[in-house]
Amino acid sequence: MNFGATFWGPMISFALFVWFTMKYVWPPIQQALADRQQQIADGLAAGERGQQELEKAREEVAALLKEAREQASQIISQANKRQAELVDEARAEARAEGERILSAAREEVEREVQQAREALRREVADIAMAASGRILKREVDAKAHQDLIDELAAQI
Prior knowledge:
By secondary structure, this protein is mostly helical. The chain is built from two helices and no strands. It is rod-shaped.
């Protein structure tokens, strides 16, 4: 067996294999690894941006919730204020209505008192006429003496 041919033959074949691999196989593998590394880096960066956007969205949601709570509080306070105003208006209207009813009742009472006085004056005048007629033993003409009767009723 020849040491030179058995040693140098596989060495040359291996060297050609290494050169061929370095020239044609290794660059696409390197490019694929570089592309994959870039994809991973992009994915990590996108994940980081997503985390930042998520945190930002959470802050915005918290701000919106706070604003909504403040608006709700304002709406409730305005509703309570309006309720108090309506109650005060209703009380004022009720007082005014009560005073109007009381005034109307007083006027009605005054009118009835006046009517009762007039009726009483007429009755007193009639009684006076009857009494004077008996005293004079003759009937007094009420129509003829109307002025006298009115004067007498006014004094009573």
